Amino acid sequence: MEATFGKFFDKVGSFFTGGDQIPWCDSDIVVGCEREVADAEKGSNDKLKGECIMRLSWALVHSKRAADVQRGIAMLEASLAGSNSPLQVREQLYLLAVGYYRSGDYTRSRQLVERCLEIAPDWRQASTLKKAIEDKITKDGVIGIGIAATAVGLVAGGIAAALSARKK
Predict the structure, then answer these.
(1) CA distances for 93 relative to 2, 90, 156, 164, angstroms
(2) Which residues make beta-bridge pairs with 63?
(3) Residue 21 and residue 137: Cα distance in Å, rounded?
(4) Of the candidates 93, 125, 137, 156, which lies 20 to 30 Å from 55 by C-alpha distance?
(5) How many domains does the chain have?
(6) Average pLDDT over residues 16-33
(7) Quick one: CA dihedral 119, 125, 131, 137, positive or negative?
(8) CATH number of residue 42's parent domain
(9) Is residue 35 part of a domain?
(10) Buried b (16+ CB within 10 A) or exposed e, 75-85
(11) Between 106-119 and 86-103, two packed helices, what is the crossing angle to 10 degrees?
């Protein structure tokens, strides 16, 4: 019985804290990836440059800084058109979905992760992101309903108080 209550409170706590399993990235990792890209641009190896840009894109969309996330989204959108391998497209779509998730555009994020799952239906990482997106949408909907219900209650209470005061 105690274990059941513990699980219940863990789920409720997770719901309101919005916990997800998507990792965050520190700014020092972003700086390191930027340095890698700068070094790779000095050389002539396009494959190495592409790998460094993908690592930087990953770091940016996983950053805690909104400006980094937006920069990562822009980089990924620019590079998506030049992608020729399905694996590379899948990875870029996933990272874009993470970026949009981090920036709060859950509808766009869900669309992109669903495209990833069309390419690779068994991809656990994309499935986990899709669940996090759906949980966030559900949580935001429940909070919105709660706010609306509270507003209606306050208005109704104000009207009742005004009518009560008028009768006296």
Answers:
(1) 43, 5, 47, 59
(2) 25
(3) 16
(4) 137
(5) 1
(6) 76
(7) negative
(8) 1.25.40.10
(9) yes
(10) bbeebeeebee
(11) 160
In a domain, 155, yes or no: no
| Residue labelled with tokens 């822009």 | 74
Q: Which domain holds residue 91?
A: 21-133
pLDDT for 48: 87
Name the residue type at position 143: I
The two structure tokens encoding residue 128: 């986990």
Gap between the Cα atoms of 113 and 93, Å rounded? 7
Tokens linked to 3: 């274990």
Query: Could you give the angle at the alpha carbon of 38 between the alpha carbons of 35 and 44, nearest 5°?
Result: 135
Distance CA 129, CA 107 (A): 13
Instruction: Tell me the per-residue pLDDT of 52-86, one tens digit each, with 9 for 90 and over.
Output: 999 999 999 999 999 999 999 999 999 888 777 88
Single-letter amino acid code for the residue at 153? G
- Within 8 A by CB and 6+ apart from 59, the residues are 25, 29, 30, 33, 68, 72
Tens of pLDDT along 116-154?
999 989 989 999 999 999 988 887 655 555 565 566 666
C-alpha distances in angstroms, 95 versus 15, 86, 107? 24, 14, 15
